[in-house]
Structures are given as C-alpha cells and as structure tokens.
Amino acid sequence: MSIKDRKDRDREKMKKLILDASLKLFISEDYSRISMRKIAEKIEYSPGTIYLYFKNKDEILYELHNMAFDKFYREQQKVNSIKEPFEKLREHGKIYINFAINNPEYYELMFIMNATGIEIEKKSNWYAGKRTFEFLMQNIQECLDNGYFKSHDVFSASMAMWSFVHGIVSLYLRKRMAMIPSENQKDVMFAAYEFFMINTGKK
Amino acid sequence: MSIKDRKDRDREKMKKLILDASLKLFISEDYSRISMRKIAEKIEYSPGTIYLYFKNKDEILYELHNMAFDKFYREQQKVNSIKEPFEKLREHGKIYINFAINNPEYYELMFIMNATGIEIEKKSNWYAGKRTFEFLMQNIQECLDNGYFKSHDVFSASMAMWSFVHGIVSLYLRKRMAMIPSENQKDVMFAAYEFFMINTGKK
DNA sequence: AAAATTACTGAACACTGTTCATTTTGTCAA
DNA sequence: TTGACAAAATGAACAGTGTTCAGTAATTTT
C-alpha cells in the first residue's frame, strides 16, 4: 500500500501547493482579479491541472475561507487571558474589528464574499463559522451569568454582538463611511463600538 | 436653441432608457450576471452605444445605486407618523431590515457592492448616503433629547444603530447565518434586533 | 518490453468590459 | 434638392475570464 500512500501524499502536497499560491495571490493582488490562469502560472502548471484537484474556483475560495477562519480563531483565543466576562467581551469585539482592518482579504473570504457564501450554504455544516460563533456564545453566556444584559437569550445576544461588529467593519471595508474623512474612520468605528458596549453592558 | 434643447432631451431619454433596462436586468437576473451586452440587447442598440452615454459599467451601477437610495428614502419617511422618538427609532430599524429582505438587489447596490463603493469614494460627496444617514441622525437626536442612551454623542450613536442593522441584514444576505435553519433566520434577525433595542434603549 | 493506468496539457468554447475605425443618420447652408 | 459637415451608432477586435476535454506524456503494472 506504500505506493498508494505516496500518491495520497503527493495529491495533498499538490492541493497545498495550489492553495498556498492562491492565498498569496489573493492577498497580494486585488482579490477580485485572482484568476485560475494566474494560479496556474504561479505554480508552473497548466490551467487544466488545477481542475484535477479542485472542482472549480469556488471550491478553492472555500478552502481559503477555512484557512482564514483558522487564523481568526487563533487570534480569538487571546481573550482567554481576561477573566472578567464583560472586559473579555469588550476585548473580543476589539480583536474582531482589528482583524478585519488588518486582514481585509481574509475578512472578505470569511464574511462578505458571495462565492464563499454560496459554498457555505451548499455544505450541510459550516464548521469554521460555527466554531468561532460558539466561542463567542460562551463569552456572552459568562456575561449573562454575571448579570449583564437585560435579556437571557444567549443566542440573540450573540447574534446582536456579532451583527454589530460585522456591520461596522463591513461598512468600513466597503467604503460606506465616505461621509467621514478617511483618517477619522477608524476612530469613529471604535467610538461607535464603545457606544454599543457602554449602552448594552449596563447591569 | 430648440434643436439643442431637443438633443439634450433625447440624450436624457436615452440615459433613462439604459438605466431602466439595467435596473430591470439587475433585479430579474442574478445581479452578478448583468452585462453590457445584455443591456444593449434589451434596449436594441449595440454595446458600443452605451459608452456614448456612460463612461463605463460602474457609472451605470452608481446611478442604479442612486435610484435605490431614492426608493429607500421614501420608505424611511414613513417613520414620521410616529411621534415618540424611541418608538420611531424602533420602527426606523424595522423598515431598514425589511427593505433589505424585500429588496436584496437594491440593498446590494447601496451598501454591499464593491463597484459602487469605489465610485462613492471617487465622488467628493455621497449625497444619497448622507441624506439617509442624516435623517437617521435626526431621529437619534430626538432620542437623546428625551433621555435615551447613556452617551450624548449623536454621531457615534447613529453609526452604532446603522452598523447594527447593516450587520444583521448583510450576514443574512451573504448567507452567513448558515448555522440557523433558513426558515428561522428572519425570526433570529428580529430577535437580535429586539435585544439591541431593549438593551441600548434603557433610560 | 508491452500494455494499462494515471497525470498533465493547451486549444477551444462561451463569456466578460471596453475601444475605435467605419458606416449610417441627421442638420444646415447654398 | 444637393452637397458638406457633424453627430450618432455600429460591430469587429483586444485582452481578459472560468471551464472542458481530446490528445500527449509519464508512470506503474503485467
């Protein structure tokens, strides 16, 4: 079975080669201009070869989306150093916002891009998204246990928190803060975030 | 000068013809599949002709974005029937969310699409967005005047409100609520909205 | 060494936005 | 009405896109 094993390994290596090249292209170039031919050129194979390893472009983007979630999940864990639930949550949101600002291409794949959204819907289980959301829910539960928030519905509270931070960064990333000078946009984002936290956090 | 007048009118008519055809295509077809050739075919002109009236596709999309904002602004005015500021704001948000659910293509143009975002950034003044945002700000100011919200920064409060409703609908539109059965997603959205309103609204 | 299997290629198909030389249509003075 | 000019419209061409598949090359098995 050793030949089969090697072939399996080679296949995984090739997939990784394609994904790594795709990710590099996705981050460096304007992400909308990533193309199968450019990926092929980067790995020095013909365009047709990629289709022997991935069904289509969307499947590649979905894999990049998973890689992006892994990166975010690692960042997310940093909140564990804070014990007080609400301070932990405050940091949680900040990490989210900063991740989006510093890694707009990753954020695009995870939460904005239509192509990945369609793939997410196709699969019966959105592991990556679920894991991150459930980690947030834990933090919200801790807050509820300590008397924060009026409601006791963890799910609604978590969705609200997520919606808020997603809303603010996606307005920013999609240039819908055009009424604010660009040098002030980040400050406005964090001011709005503080407003949200102060008002919802009232015991 | 009457010939020039007629020519000006003809030119405006032609622009309207192109925009109306574009809007119809944009709404009926999958919006990502709208193409200059399809617009040309619909109005029974050659593709090149469109470029005599619009610089490029993005300019057409920007005009559609303006038309979408007009439609939303009209819906937004309905809140004026409610006098109590906070109840008015609650309705304001509901109108926003329902607009996005019922007109996903318009919402796409206004707040999500990258092409329009780039055009918005190019123009020095985002009239459409400003008008809608300022109308929201008025409502928030009324709330502040009546003792709602802890902060007294109208701008941050308005950005927070907008971010929240935008966040929730864009997660929904981009299929990032995949962990929730689709038949429940709308309920979850409104539950999260209620959470937000109840918690931030505490006097 | 020959046969069978697997891996890879690159031309081809049907699209996309955009440009521009060429043709058609409209206007106006003689 | 005719000829000259200007304006409007055309559609082929360019450079790109995702994807497919008959044909070739390399590898493995017999």
Structure description:
Two copies of one chain form a homodimer. Chain A has 203 residues and is an all-alpha fold. The first copy, chain A, folds into two domains: 1-54, Arc Repressor Mutant, subunit A (Orthogonal Bundle), CATH 1.10.10; 57-201, Tetracycline Repressor, domain 2, CATH 1.10.357. Helix content of chain A is 76%, strand content 0%. Chain A is built from ten helices and no strands. Chain A is globular, with a radius of gyration of 20 Å. Chain A starts with a helix and ends with a helix. The mean pLDDT of chain A is 95. At the A-B interface, helix 7, helix 8, helix 9 and helix 10 of A face helix 7, helix 8, helix 9 and helix 10 of B. Chain A binds a DNA duplex (30 and 30 nucleotides) through helix 3.
Topology:
Two copies of one chain form a homodimer.
Chain A: H1 2-28, H2 36-43, H3 47-50, H4 57-76, H5 85-102, H6 104-112, H7 114-122, H8 127-145, H9 154-173, H10 182-201
Helix pairs in contact in A: 1-2, 1-4, 4-6, 4-7, 4-8, 5-6, 5-8, 5-9, 5-10, 8-9, 9-10
The structure holds a DNA duplex (30 and 30 nucleotides).
